## 1
Amino acid sequence: MARKTKEEAEQTRKKLLETAALLFWEKGVSHTSLADIASSAGLTRGAIYWHFKDKLDLFYAMSQQVVPPYHQIYDTMERNAADNAARSLWNGALEILTNVSNSPDIRRILGILFFRCEYVGELQSLQIENLDWIRQLQQRLIRIIELAQQQGQLKPGIDPVAAAIAWQAQQRGLVQFSLLLPDTPLLHSQPESLLKPYFSGVFKPDCWLAHD
């Protein structure tokens, strides 16, 4: 019975997160109340408070669902960078775009974070945490691109720090573009064509591409 109760509690938590994401996307974070979430999920507000302290806690838990996939991609990039840093960055960039394109849940959560909330008041602390996370990922990118430089893959005059910032900006821009214009064919069928301008400008010819 205890095991069943734990499984049921986890299912309830999952349902609350899914419902919150749907309502945050439809109505915006500030216009969605805990009562709205409870009603839409067919649960009581007490069920929400069993799992989350308040709306901020629920919003934070929802937003954290997109973190593990990103960390996994960065972990893989760092592992593979020793063999070919440029190719590891290419594969990582392609995987990010593919994940966003293929996962409705990730798309919805990123859409909420980008377009459906204002980072003021109680959400300001989350914006600060988000910026810290971006800087942490940036430092990981810098290390990979510095390794690419050591491997002789960077074009002359390319600064690893600038290249890392540009890599992040490209990824964020393409993800936001895909959320705003989901019917753009290239974003889903030919993401490689959107990445090539950056890689062609930063790295020596074709060092990021796999060769059979």
## 2
Amino acid sequence: MRDEVPVGAVVARGEEILAVASNERETIQDPTAHAELLALRRAASKLGGWRLTGCTLYSTLEPCPMCAGAAHAARISRLVYAAPDPKAGYAGSLYNIPQDSRLNHIIPTTRGVLHDEASELLRTFFKERRQAL
């Protein structure tokens, strides 16, 4: 087991998958190595620029403040996530960066796609982690 919270992210432009990532915080000991941030970086690298207009960010879990801010900064055109994060979610749960009208653009957001599957994956991970302690 990698001991990473099982969050995955994909950046796509239409039918084209530009980048895929999973959490790597524990693996590379980097607090910013969230799946969403890594996928955004890889997509920007593939496209040769930081503006990801016309792209969708898909994630297993609602983005945290850092990842929601990075999606906004990258000019993502759409956000889709499976499970809400009531303790750290900044795309609807605790705060809503993608929908904040004070920022320079709004990111249309779809919540709950594959909710049950993602929630079960996360529940199982944390249950097993608690049992191992």
## 3
Amino acid sequence: MQPTSPSRAELASKRLRGWTARIQAAPRGVRSGRLERVSGLMLEVAGLPMTIGNRAAVASGNGWVECECVGFSGHTTYLMPIDPASRVAPGAVVYPANTPAQEGKRFIPIESAPPLPIGEALLGRIVDGYGRALDGLPTGAEAPNPYRSPVINPLHRQPIREPLDAGVRSINAMLTVGRGQRVGIFAGSGVGKSVLLGMLARRCVADVVVIGLVGERGREVREFCEDTLGSDALHRSVVVAAPADASPLARLRGALFATDVATYFRDQGRHVVLIIDSLTRFAMAQREIALSLGEPPVSRGYPPSVFAKMPELVEKVGNGAVPDSSITAFYTILLEGDDIHDPVADTARGILDGHLFLSRELADSGHYPAIDIEKSISRVMPKVTDERHLEAARKVKQLISRYMRGRDMVAMGAYAPGSDPGLDEALRLWPGIQQFLQQGMHDNHSMSDSLIALFGLLGGAGGTA
């Protein structure tokens, strides 16, 4: 039998299916713009309207430079590179990220570098400000988690009722921190800030520790992970590193990504400790972006958006709506020239629940950790300690203050013993107070041990209340 030829209807149907397949395979809604101007770190693009926070790719001699939209004005879109950009030419074509881009007569997909998924797989990992792996370990095949910190009704937040065992005797006894508290560590350069952070990361009692190294020296990232933190503490930690040579956008995102990771674990019912080093570098990154966008400097070179971004970051942490979970946060604030009235420091003191001041005078004398007990305060300490503990800490603080006021008279020989019973007691207990407030970087003092030492210092029973 002769094979029957296909009918005209079948041929038309076959052609229709072919055209449909070609249409489905073709790029859809491809838009592009042109690079018009480069001003500092800001790329000005015409013809490509975008939403703030969305990604784009700019053609360069090295391939594609991934950028993020940080603002717009009229028909001009402002982009900032995620990574350092080079070999970008005038009129370069710009495409939205994750869309096809035309090269010659064909289209190729532009894919954004995928972050690691926020979840259990992040524990023990070191990532950059965008969640991309830095440790060279396999990334797995999991899809990225689009998790973002939820906005919590302030009336739904769990109250702070439990103390956090920080593993540092002077903090446990004199400046007790509560689970869910946000504490600022105010320090100049070279006063032992990194060592104190390492002690907190290793010794604090928490399920997960999230560390954001924002704007610090790149050399310190590996040293902190291997030497200060150590392999024993790394398995329960997530390290987000955005060093000083990263773009201001990456430094800004580093603090935000670390906060997102901490809030994820908190919402899973974990007790989390979040360490951001430093909040000042976060503010400086936002200042660079804001000034590039044309915001006016209003306070020592800082534009208004800096003082809006800081509370926005800090208010995401703390206790959430899930019972028996918390984020206890430690933010370092750099004091330029040891100036405690720096605008960032002033703003931080107003939005945090306490502050630890590290003294250069104590550090120069070999007193570590160099916490100035007189200038430091924990605003939630009365809520997480009993009356006996509070009274003992207040007594030691009074003795420290009395000694500091009278030490010059004693050194000059102008003080006659017995004329001031308070100063006599401070002089008698001063060697013990100094020993009590100092601690080696490898020592660990639990909450119960710290209270025993506090009560023993004042001649108490040597036990907890």
## 4
Amino acid sequence: MGFKCGIVGLPNVGKSTLFNALTQTAAAQAANFPFCTIEPNVGKVAVPDERLDAIAKIAGSAKIIPSQLEFVDIAGLVKGASQGEGLGNQFLANIRETDAIIHVLRCFEDSDITHVDGTIDPLRDAETIETELMLADLESLDRQILSASRKAKSGDKESKSQLDIMERMKAALDLGNPASSVSLSEDEIPLAKTLCLLSSKPILYVCNVAEEEAQLGNEWTQKVSAMAESKGAQSVIVSAAIESEIAQLDSKDDQMELLASMELTEPGLNKIIRAGYQLLNVRDYFTVGPKEARAWTISVGDKAPQAAGKIHSDFERGFIRAETISYEDYVQYNGENGAKEAGKMRQEGKEYIVQDGDIILFRQNT
């Protein structure tokens, strides 16, 4: 369980290099020319979590199943993509159902790597891409409004509600504002998600910098950070070149040694995952036993039955209680039996809000 991110950006900003490094594959051809990615690439990576390793060791679990993060990398977008320029627009459909968008911005100078606009300016690049996403959304909304209007006239209540949301979002887009700028009620949020609008998704800006700037960033990353903050988004600094070097090392010790030599404490993937979890407002809980230790991703605020439903819908329907131990107590008292003896296992009911790192055994009607 995890979440799915679409990777967007102009050609030659390091999208495919970063994708290759993050997924530790050579699925996307990274090359110094535009549109080298001509098919959408999909890669899954395990979410690193030392807590999962720790509880698996205590329980003697035969298998460890971490949460997964899925990346979808599409061809580089260019100005005019919504009118058919370049190739990226052909693949926008591949990221419509993602949970978030990772927007890779070039924040490094390199005369050997061309830029489609001739100069480095990540703020300009961000505006170019986001304009194309909004234009693509307008085109999508025009089609969806036509369909919803027909259904609404026949008395379909859901279509009437959707039509109202669509018209408000179209009005925002017509003014040059993203769909995410439209205020929605709690009841409207699920309906809005079914529209799969690109500009309604949370954005994580990834500043791709030169190796020597990976620790502190530069003037451009500071500007991107300020822009992200003004939009309620997140930004992280990553060097795709360093991530590529890390991906080629099999040993974790070798990877950490390389990072230490560059005065870095963790791979860029960890920063992207952490920012992604914060952006999407999600957290992980665990199930653990002799067979497997497993992480499950839920939304912040999910109650015990909803968390149980991530395992199987029957668990949510037949929910009785959640036998819960905090991660800290599980480790301190050396597992389930020790936590029980110390009185640290809690019997939680339907209203319990699952906390990050909870270790849970669900009881349900069979």
